[in-house]
Design a protein that fits this description.
The complex is a heterodimer. By secondary structure, chain A is an all-alpha fold. Chain A contains four helices and no strands. In chain B, 92% of the residues lie in helices and 0% in strands. The radius of gyration of chain B is 18 Å and the shape is elongated. The chains are: A mainly alpha, B mainly alpha.
Chain lengths: 143, 100
C-alpha cells in the first residue's frame, strides 16, 4: 500500500514536471510559458516531495518534505511575479493572439516616474476587443 | 517486501528518466530563448526540476541526506531567480533612461 502510493505519487509528479518542460518548449510567449513553469512545475515537485514523505514514514523526514512543499508553494508565485514584471516592463514580444493587454495604455515605469509620458507607440486596440460583449470597466479610474 | 522495493525502485528510475528529459527540454529553451526573460523562466524551471530530481534520487538511493540538499538548493535557486529578474528589470530601466 505504502509502496503503491509512493509509486503513484512519484510517477504522477514526474509526469507533471515533464509536461511543464514540454510547455516551456512549445508555448508561444514568455508570459504564457510562465504558466507552465510555475504551476505545473510546482505541482510536480510537490507531488514528488509527498511521495518522499510517504516513502520514509518518519516524523523528521516527513516534516522536512512538507516544509519543502510549503516553501515551493510560497516562492513560486513570488518568483513568477518578479519575472513577469521584468518581462512586461522590458516590453517582451507578446503572442500575436493576445487581445487583452490591460496595461498597454499606461507607462510601464509608472511607479518610479509618475508624470512620464505614455510610450511612444502604444499597442493599437485590436478590433476584436470592441466586438466582444465583455463589459469594460471605466478606464479613467486607472490613472 | 521484495516486490514493493522493486516497485518503488522501478518507478523512481522512471521518474529520474522523465525528469532528466524535462531538464533537457528546459535547457533547449534556455539556449533558444529569444528574450532574456525567457532564459530566466527556463532557469527557474530547471532549478525546480533539479529539486524534484534530488527528491526522486533520495527515494531511489534511500538516502535521506538528499532531502536536505534539495531544500538548500531550493532556497538558493529562489534567491538566484529573484536576483536575475530584478537585474533584468533594472538594466532595462537604465537603458530606457539613457535613450531619453
Amino acid at each position: 500500500m505504502q509502496a503503491a502510493l509512493t509509486a503513484f505519487l512519484m510517477v504522477s509528479g514526474a509526469i507533471f514536471c515533464f509536461v511543464a518542460a514540454l510547455g516551456m518548449l512549445r508555448l508561444p510567449d514568455t508570459i504564457i510559458r510562465m504558466h507552465a513553469a510555475t504551476k505545473a512545475g510546482a505541482l510536480g515537485s510537490g507531488l514528488i516531495f509527498l511521495a518522499l514523505a510517504v516513502f520514509y514514514q518518519d516524523l523528521s523526514t516527513t516534516l522536512k518534505a512538507l516544509a519543502a512543499v510549503f516553501f515551493l508553494l510560497l516562492t513560486a508565485p513570488v518568483a513568477a511575479h518578479l519575472i513577469g514584471r521584468a518581462a512586461y516592463c522590458t516590453r517582451v514580444r507578446l503572442s500575436p493572439r493576445t487581445w487583452i493587454d490591460e496595461l498597454s495604455h499606461t507607462c510601464r515605469w509608472c511607479e518610479l516616474q509618475p508624470s512620464c509620458d505614455p510610450p511612444e507607440s502604444p499597442d493599437p486596440v485590436p478590433p476584436k476587443q470592441a466586438a466582444t460583449a465583455i463589459p469594460e470597466k471605466p478606464s479613467e479610474t486607472r490613472r | 517486501m521484495g516486490t514493493e522495493n522493486l516497485l518503488v525502485g522501478t518507478t523512481a528510475m522512471i521518474s529520474l528518466v522523465l525528469l532528466t528529459l524535462a531538464i533537457l527540454l528546459a535547457f533547449v529553451r534556455l539556449v533558444m530563448g529569444p528574450d532574456p526573460a525567457d532564459r530566466i523562466v527556463a532557469l527557474d524551471l530547471i532549478s525546480v526540476l533539479m529539486v524534484s530530481y534530488l527528491a526522486a534520487l533520495s527515494v531511489y538511493t534511500e538516502e535521506r541526506t538528499f532531502l536536505d540538499v534539495a531544500i538548500a538548493y531550493a532556497l538558493i535557486a529562489f534567491l538566484g531567480t529573484v536576483a536575475l529578474a530584478r537585474f533584468r528589470e533594472r538594466l532595462a530601466r537604465r537603458q530606457d533612461d539613457e535613450n531619453k
